[in-house]
Request: fold
Amino acid sequence: MRNPVYLILFTVALMMGGTSVRAEPVQLPYKGLNLVGEFVVAEDRKPSDSVVLILHGTLAHLGMETIKGLQTVLTERGHNTLSINLSFGLDNRRGMYDCAVPHQHRYDDALDELSVWLDWLAARGIKDVTLFGHSRGGGQVALFGAKKDHLLVKRLVLLAPATWTEEKVATGFEKSHGRPLIDVLQEARGLSNGGKGGTFMKGTGILYCPGADVTADSFLSYYEPDTRFDTPTLLPKIKQPVLVIAAGQDTVVPDIAEKVKPMVDGDHVRLAVVEDAGHFFLDLFAEDVADAMEEFMDPGS
Reply:
């Protein structure tokens, strides 16, 4: 009998050749919640063929324009994809995270959820996965590559992934939330429950949510100074080949190309810059992203 973790709300039809595109919603049981994803099988592809697993950015979702646009282009080019929503501790989460909902999620939760989705793909007979992440999701994918060693993951693509310095984060937090970060960190450390939640800090704010309620441990998971938030620092720790795609007009992560350039070796770490794109690679820039991805995923084509 199949392990219940792999029970889902649909069965992909195993059809050979001459098929049309099939987009299927997925709900995957996990720790009492349902994780949400969308599995798309491209025309004339089998469900067991290679897959691009796509992770969104900060508090976002699989339907945001950056993710949906890229998924559409990849499908048109014959690539199977699985786009997913991080749960952020919520059941069946869809759309942007509602800032009014108290925050109990942690930065590293993404690693466990990515593992569950990869196991789901393995159970479907898939053996080749390109792990893709955008923005903060790119940083989380890089952290996954640095800390995990899942057999399905053959390569990583990081689209405008997050960079980090203690000074930059402190400045950004005070600008967005009106308090010095060091003061809030000290408060959170005193209220922490060793990673198990901790006391709610009312009206503290987190990420893009000023005034939001957040547990001490959730807050610390995103703001306790740590180089694991800095994608370039993680690259040497990743075993698989990595492609970093930067936007030439990125005002959110403007330093990613500069930081990655010294690490490029043409084999393990590669860099592509889409000169006129902004951080979200909207509209036709998705084609440029797909071009860079295809050259990386199949350089001999």
About this structure: The first helix runs from residue 65 to 76. The chain is about 30% helix and 20% strand. The longest strand covers residues 22-30. Strands lie at 22-30, 33-41, 51-55, 80-85, 129-134, 153-159, 200-201, 214-215, 242-247, 269-274.
